[in-house]
């Protein structure tokens, strides 16, 4: 998409607004698919927690992706989008046995990440194929909130608990058809990822009937010009070679699986917001927009950086601005950022807004969540309507709280 397209979409659908470019999603999928082209059996399971709009899910299904889910609701969304149940993997954390059993009844692949649930599930459903999520105790990723392979992480079964795990599998006679790991997000050091993979290969030798090995994802995407990113092509070459060697050692070809989320959709997304006020203080120039962390929480939550462009004045001289929102709390998108000169009414474009933006949006301050638009084949398609006041009240129950005040209260 170009600047003119974005301005036209903002004019048609208003702001704030999420816009997704389908071409970018397709290109990222093909790039990852090609990087691991040397692997006979590859499965890319889209991690839909990144962006779960059903139109995006349908696009992923058309590309041939599987689906990585973390809740029964995401499983049901996948089924509604047309995914075959066997192409959906369910990797929850801390959910009830009941929810896992409900997903089992829907036919999705189960991925269990704790010994308690593994034993309960194996005892009750020994014939249901189960994947096991391993914590390799390898620290990878950016912010500590998104590095999930370290020893204090709540995710996965520790590699130090493998003997206990094997005892449960033997005692229940359960069917283990896959193993899985996830070390975190924003992975840059390929050698760290490959080291964690060796731990997974070693663990895999304990299970004789595996069908797949899932290496998670967490690939870093660039957030600004010149930013570093995961070298997918180098990783693809090195891990493919090692995976094929392992399959020879194991005795049969397994499926290599990944769960890309942000990698597929982050760069496809744009968040458009209108400047309500340009506010000059004694030390700072604020550009105050018609949005806040209720729509894009990542800068406040993770300290993430989103490139911001003034698409209304792309050739204006650069000045320093702090871009802030309208939420009644500290609500900062960027501090002292060089941006082309901003006037009230201008449209600012936040890049890399495809992942963990709309899915983490809220109605804080009783604000409406924005609309979503898919830019597909050079045309804008509305894929989610902007919320209205009726949506805020939709599930609320108006209780009659009228109270007959007694005379003593009135006298006092």
TrEMBL record:
**Source species, please?**
Spongiivirga citrea
Q: Name one GO molecular function term.
A: pyridoxal phosphate binding
Where is each Orn/DAP/Arg decarboxylase 2 C-terminal domain found? 18-354
**Known partners and oligomeric status:** Homodimer.
One GO BP on record is:
lysine biosynthetic process via diaminopimelate
Question: What's the EC number here?
Answer: 4.1.1.20
Residues recorded with modification N6-(pyridoxal phosphate)lysine: 49
Q: Which Pfam families match?
A: Orn_Arg_deC_N (PF02784), Orn_DAP_Arg_deC (PF00278)
Pathway involvement of the protein, from the record:
Amino-acid biosynthesis; L-lysine biosynthesis via DAP pathway; L-lysine from DL-2,6-diaminopimelate: step 1/1
Kindly provide the name given to this protein in its UniProt entry: Diaminopimelate decarboxylase
